[in-house]
Amino acid sequence: MTAFVTGLMAQAHAYLEGDPDDPVAQGLTYTSVHVWVDDEELARLRARLRDLIDPLAHATPGPGRRQITLGVVAIPQAGGADPR
Questions:
Q1: Which end is more exposed in the chain, N or C (fewer Cβ atoms within 10 Å of the end residue's Cβ)?
Q2: CA angle 67, 59, 51 (to 5 degrees)
Q3: What is the pLDDT along the chain (84 residues), one digit of tens a residue?
Q4: Any idea of the CA torsion for 50, 3, 12, 66, to the nearest 10 degrees?
Q5: Global confidence as pTM
């Protein structure tokens, strides 16, 4: 996991070192959201992400295409289930 996060940070740092004019317009995004899910919902989420990402992961270079790095991390929070 450390290697994954370090790699993402290194790629982001290298991109920003290039002093991009408009990172957001160029597609730089960062999203962090906390959600409550049960095991079934988490499995559905993972499957839907795979359905979205897999076709793009197998795409090839071509006119108008650019490569991006998309990193998805799900981190279980301490404490487990909602105590309510």
A1: C
A2: 105
A3: 788 888 888 888 888 888 888 888 888 888 889 999 999 999 999 999 999 999 999 999 999 999 998 888 888 887 766 656
A4: -40
A5: 0.69
- Residue of 56, 33, 57, 27 whose CA lies nearest to 45: 33
**Cβ of 37: how many Cβ atoms within 10 Å?**
12
Which residue is associated with the tokens 């991006």? 68
C-alpha 60 chain-centroid distance:
20
Q: Hey, what are 44's tokens? A: 């559905």
CA R_g for the chain: 16
User: Cα dihedral angle (55, 56, 62, 68), rounded to 10 degrees?
Assistant: -170
Q: Can you tell me the distance from the alpha carbon of 57 to that of 68, in angstroms, rounded to the nearest whole number?
A: 10
